[in-house]
Write a structure and sequence with these properties.
InterPro entries: Retrotrans_gag_dom
Number of strands: 2
Order of helices and strands: HHHHHHHHHHHHHHEE
Strand content: under 5%
Helix content: 40-55%
Low-confidence stretches: 20-32, 257-268, 365-374
Mean pLDDT: 75
Protein name: Reverse transcriptase domain-containing protein
Strand order of the largest sheet: 1-2
Pfam family, one: Retrotrans_gag
Oligomer: single chain
GO molecular function: RNA-directed DNA polymerase activity
Keywords: Nucleotidyltransferase, RNA-directed DNA polymerase, Transferase
Length: 374
């Protein structure tokens, strides 16, 4: 018979026993604990065959469904078209554009009883090169089962969220450049939208962003085409007006650029460039306003009496041929001396013009007369 004290002691001992920890069952043993494969004596392979590297695990990441169509064969021309524009995985490449181009190429050929997605899965590897091909080869074997899986992994790899954020910011901060026509601005805006098809901007937000990014001249043109305020129209009407205006791009009229001071910051143009343009315009305007210098009319002056007539018509020398020759000689000698004086050299009088009735003077060596050699 157990007493009350004995039962209390037994209960106390049961409570003090620590719980036992049961180690979970490990399905995969560590490599160092794994025993090498056991080769039984019944195995008929040779030593060389047993030591060969295993050939398992070399399956491709893309799983192509089995094609049951008869006489199915990929044409060499289709492979060439796919390889003409390969994706290398560079930062400036657009994976969305590559998928669009690949879909156009593969849709040009139809095979009876063969799904188009199966053809795309077979050909996509040939459209990659460089880092993009290395990425696909590193994907786990048999991890891509459908065309949608392949597109999703490809886009997420080469179009990370940071690139999406940058493109969304470019769309939000879009501004027409100072030397950009309306057509060029609309085309560049659409390029940004196509580069990021998952931008999430509604059509209303796109039209509002583009309208507010235009210069005042193009905004006035849209308002005039809308018959009032452009923003009072419905979105589909606004889009129709923009597309109609953008088609008229044959006339390459550039927008008028207002003068920009060096203290202001205009998107697309630096203050130094604006100042240089203003200087060039001012110089061109100055040249256009400058009139040609007037040409002074040379008046006749007589070398004999100083009158406003030629020496031939001078009354003082009328009938005196010898005196007339002297005056002509003086006039021509004065002109020659003036021209030679401008060059700093004074020729000897023997080399100057002499009257026709005077005989030529022979050089007398170093004889001097009034500072000239005869």
């Amino acid at each position: 018979m157990r007493t009350r004290s004995q039962s209390r002691n037994s209960n106390r001992q049961q409570q003090q026993v620590p719980p036992t920890f049961v180690e979970p069952f490990n399905l995969v043993e560590p490599i160092e604990n794994q025993a090498p494969p056991v080769v039984t004596m019944d195995d008929n392979r040779t030593m060389a065959q047993l030591l060969e590297a295993p050939t398992e695990g070399y399956e491709d990441a893309i799983v192509v469904p089995e094609i049951t169509a008869d006489n199915f064969e990929l044409k060499h021309g289709l492979l060439t078209l796919v390889q003409n524009k390969q994706f290398f995985g560079h930062d400036k490449e657009d994976p969305h554009a590559h998928i669009r181009y690949f879909n156009k190429i593969t849709s040009t050929m139809k095979f009876p009883n063969v799904p188009s997605t199966s053809v795309k899965l077979m050909l996509f590897l040939f459209s990659l090169e460089g880092a993009a091909r290395i990425w696909l080869e590193k994907e786990p074997p048999r991890s891509i089962l459908t065309w949608d899986d392949l597109v999703s992994k490809f886009i997420n790899k080469f179009f990370p969220p940071s690139k999406t954020t940058n493109l969304r910011n470019e769309i939000t901060r879009f501004q027409q450049r100072f030397d950009e026509t309306f057509y060029e601005a609309w085309d560049r805006f659409n390029d940004l939208l196509r580069a990021c098809p998952h931008h999430g901007f509604s059509e209303l937000h796109q039209l509002d962003t583009f309208y507010n990014a235009l210069n005042s001249n193009d905004q006035d043109s849209l308002n005039s085409a809308a018959g009032g305020n452009f923003l009072d129209k419905m979105p589909r009407d606004c889009l129709r007006i923009i597309e109609s205006k953008s088609k008229v791009h044959n006339s390459r009229n550039k927008p008028v650029v207002a003068k920009v001071s060096s203290s202001t910051s205009t998107p697309g143009i630096s203050p130094d460039v604006a100042k240089l343009k203003d200087m060039v315009k001012a110089l061109l305007l100055y040249k256009k306003t400058q009139a040609p210098a007037p040409v002074k009319v040379v008046e006749e002056s007589c070398v004999t009496c100083g009158g406003a007539h030629s020496y031939q018509n001078c009354p003082a020398t009328d009938g005196n041929v010898y005196h007339d020759n002297i005056k002509e000689y003086v006039s021509q000698a004065a002109a020659a001396n003036f021209n030679q004086g401008n060059t700093g050299y004074r020729a000897p009088i023997a080399n100057q013009i002499r009257p026709p009735s005077f005989p030529p003077v022979q050089n007398q060596g170093n004889n001097q007369f009034n500072g000239h050699a005869f």
